[in-house]
Amino acid sequence: MLAKCFVHKFQLQKNLTNSQEDEFNCQRVGSIHLGTRKPVVKIKVGPPSLQRVITLSDNIIQILNSGNLQFIPNIKLKNIITFAISNKSSQGASVDMCLSTKRNKLQLYLLDLTKINFIQELSVQESLISMSMDEYGILACSETKYFTYILEINNDRLSISSSQIIFTLHDSSIPSYCTNITSGEYLINGPNIGITTTLEGTSQRAPIMFTSQPNMFIYSHPYLIAVVNDYIHIYSYLDDQPKQKIHVGYCRTLINIPEENRNSILINTKDKIYLLESISIEKQIDQLLIKYRLDEALNLAKSTCSITEKQQTNSLIISTQKRIGFIQFTSLNVIQALDLFDAIHLDFYEIINYIADFLPLNSPWPNFDENNRSKYIQWLTAFCDYMIKRSTDFSLQPDYYSSILKAYLIIKSREMIIEFLEKNASFIPIDFNNLLFNAQLYHGVAILYSAHDKHEETIEIWKKIVLKEYPNDDDTFPGIWVIAKYILERNIDRSVEFSIAKWLLEQNEEELAIKIFIAKHKDESNDDIFCSDRVMSLLKPYPTALRNYLEQAAFKLMIETDDIHTTLVNIYLDQLLSKSPQDDEHIRLKLQEFLIKSNSYRIQSVLHRINQTDRLKREVALLYGKMNNFEQAFEILVNELEDFEYAVNYCTALSYEKSSEDRKIVAHILFKVLLACIDKHPDEITQVLLRLLCNNEIEFNFLEILKRLPSHWSISLLADILLRAVRSYSYTERSTKLELALSRLQNEKLNIKLAKLKCSNVIVNEYRRCKHCLHQFYETSCVVYPDGSQVHIHCAKQLN
User: Domain CNH, which positions (predicted)?
Assistant: First the structure.
């Protein structure tokens, strides 16, 4: 401390009291007289590593040891108006200084532990009365002008590279003054404003508007302390607003004492010394948050982060953003809250802990009134948006999908909850079934059970929904078909599958039951619960279902048992005989098709039953054809029914998948029957014969057919028949010749190969060994393989 020509050193110790104001014990531990006649006008404490105190009194600079207040010998500079030391943070045991002399000189010095070294001197236009210095340069002022001097280092030597005038005061009543804010940033005193500037005289920051013209000021992050007559005005440098006004009397000097996490200012008046102590940044932030001054709190936290430090890793900024986020969240400003949560990558567990009644996750929500429900909807909607936005980071955590599900129970429709469960139920623990039961989402419980392979429990819930055993209907249940679909898509216990199919029958869902019986059929052994005998016995009370099952068993499963095929034929017959002739056309066509295609029904049994009525002559013909009694079959179709077109079509069907000779036999029999009744219906039979003989799907021996054609047929009628006969004969001749030629060519190739083999030499000696048994050959006979290897004859016989 300083008083008149003395420098005193005091030790301050804070008293631990319960009062709101801090109290200190002040004890002087050293003092020294500077040997000058005038008071000390300026004092600076150098870096801790240097342990030096620099004083200015009576235009003389003297250097003291900060530990014992002893003079550093041989260091005394005279005719000095003011000085400044560099605020460079990493200077080691030395510090750069700049001085203003009475001879209008600006001098640079380097102060170390033992001496002060002169570096450079520069003439200036006017005497400099205030200055500030950092690693980039010097900002100084005269009575009316502000100057900047840019520093550079050449060969480890500091020097002034350039200078300029950046501002001029035209009012002599305004005191010129400057101070350093941060590296490369300065504040100069103007007409009721504080102007932020750089060494180039530019700045992007708006001026600070002073309430009164200050005499001097000093920056102590984040505040600007200005002296206005007998008062200290404190401005926030973050928002440029005045924060406090303190009466101290006439102030002579301001000294900034940096400490960890806070700065203290010593204010020296004529007869008193004040300690202006700022509260910690953390407490300042707390106070701002309590007053809901959120932006100021965040800006204050960010201002503690240096240029080189990343804001994303600064713990104070992160904690402040988190607190502001939750304040905004509570105030239902959810968009701003989510932006802050996203900026700090907040874990969703912290949000869950903040929302009342969210934990435990598998517990049901309480009943909300309208106000609380509206509030929770906004919170949970924001929470889900945040979860989905950060899904890449969160989806691997165990409670991610469970948390979303619980939030969805409040904010989403029942249909959307079901859709969510269908996609993600496997990631949700099964004990969440109580939560879904409480929400009356019974179908959702079934989906959850299904995702965890609880098949019987899943089906049991669906059955209860269908049977309306729950107190309320579940409108999300799509229908009973879901049960059948579930069985068809999975391989679960076959007895369970059979019981479900049986239950579906009882619920009159015959089609769904048949799908299960067909899909789950394996074979016809008695070991298979879905064998046709068991299913048929189960379906006897359900004739329509039985018919559908038999049709699919015969045509889809390709079961070739006479019981199935005969039973199906009898069902068709029952339906035909129970209906009038006008209503049975569709069923009759199905019966006829089945009689033609199937080879497994009991023909005699069916024939005996059909013969009991005169309505089914065509079916009788089909049965005779199935017994290879083609002539009687065609006799019924042609002579009795006179259905010539059907006879031709039936001949085509009989020719399917038969050999060429068998097709000719069937065709010749139909030709013979038609030709025999040509006199009854000459015109119709003639046209039918022409179509029959020209049908490329039916084969004839045309040499025999041409001999038996009516002699009165004209050449024009025979033209198409003759054309087909010639083509058929030519095709047959060409095919026969090609077959003979190919056989002859193959035979010649084999003869040539045989001749080559006979001409080739095969050497057998005692050094040759059989390829199979690896023994020597003791006789000249051997077998030679195409690859040239040789084996014993008995070895070749054994292998072949």
Answer: 1-261
- Name residues whose C-beta falls within 8 Å of residue 247's C-beta, 6 or more positions apart in sequence: 230, 231, 232
Output phi, psi for 597, to 5 deg. Answer: -80, -40
Q: How many residues does the chain have?
A: 800
Residue 157: per-residue pLDDT: 82
Sheet bearing 157-168, strands edge to edge: 130-133, 137-141, 145-154, 157-168
Contact 498, 476 (CB under 8 A): no
Tokens of 477: 């249940």
Q: Pairing state of beta strands 783-784 and 80-85? A: unpaired
Residue 276 lies in a domain: no
189 in a structural domain: no
DSSP letter for 636, please: I
pLDDT at position 295 is 82
Q: How far apart, in whole angstroms, are the C-alpha atoms of residue 189 and residue 166?
A: 13
Among 518, 511, 504, smallest CA distance to 558 is for 518
Distance CA(718)–CA(586), nearest Å, equals 39
- 5 Cβ contact partners less than 8 Å away, ≥ 6 residues apart: 33, 34, 35, 36, 37, 38, 39, 40, 57, 58
Q: Which amino acid is at 414?
A: R
Q: How far apart are CA 269 and CA 251, in angstroms?
A: 4
The CA R_g of the chain, rounded to the nearest whole Å, is: 55
Question: Has this prediction a pTM greater than 0.90?
Answer: no
Q: Does a structural domain hold residue 65?
A: yes
Query: For residues 369, 374, 379 and 384, what is the CA-based torsion angle, rounded to 10 degrees?
Result: 110
3-state secondary structure of 598: coil
What is the pLDDT at residue 110? 92
Neighbouring C-beta atoms of residue 523, cutoff 10 Å = 12
| 27 within a domain of the structure (yes/no) | yes
- 188 forms beta bridges with 178, 195
d(C-alpha 718, C-alpha 724), whole Å: 10
- Report the C-alpha gap between 622 and 615 in whole angstroms: 14
Q: What is the number of domains present in the chain? A: 1
Compute mean pLDDT per 10 residues along the chain, 800 residues long, and list them: 72 68 77 88 85 91 90 91 83 86 93 90 91 92 93 84 90 90 90 92 90 90 88 88 88 73 76 79 84 82 64 76 86 85 86 87 85 88 89 88 92 93 93 91 94 94 94 92 93 92 93 93 88 91 91 90 90 83 77 88 90 86 89 88 87 84 87 86 86 85 83 83 84 89 93 81 80 85 84 87
Of the CA atoms within 13 Å of residue 454, those in its CB half-sphere come to: 18
| Other beta carbons within 10 Å of 522 | 12
Return the bridge partners of 53, or none.
45, 64
Instruction: Specify whether the backbone of 196 is left (phi greater than 0), alpha (psi in -120 to 50) or beta.
Output: beta
Provide the residue type at 281 as one letter: I
Query: How far is 189 from 197, CA to CA, in rounded Å?
Result: 11
Which pairs with CB-CB distance under 8 Å and at least 24 residues apart come from 110-116?
110/158, 111/46, 111/50, 111/52, 111/54, 111/63, 111/85, 112/50, 113/50, 114/72, 115/74, 115/75, 116/63, 116/75, 116/77
Q: What is the pLDDT of residue 360?
A: 87
Residue 264, classed as helix, strand or coil, is: strand
- pLDDT of the residue at 138: 93
Output phi, psi for 349, to 5 deg: -60, -35
Phi-psi sector, 397: left (phi>0), alpha (psi -120 to 50), beta = beta
Structural domain containing residue 18: 1-78
Give which of 23, 33, 24, 121 is closest to 70, Cα–Cα.
33
Residues contacting 618, CB < 8 A, separation 6+: 592, 636, 637, 641, 643, 646
Sign of dihedral through CA atoms 443, 445, 448, 452? negative
Integer Cα distance of 499 and 286 in angstroms: 68
Q: Measured between alpha carbons, how far is 678 from 363 in angstroms, rounded to an integer? A: 91
CA torsion, ordered 88, 89, 94, 96, to nearest 10 deg: 10
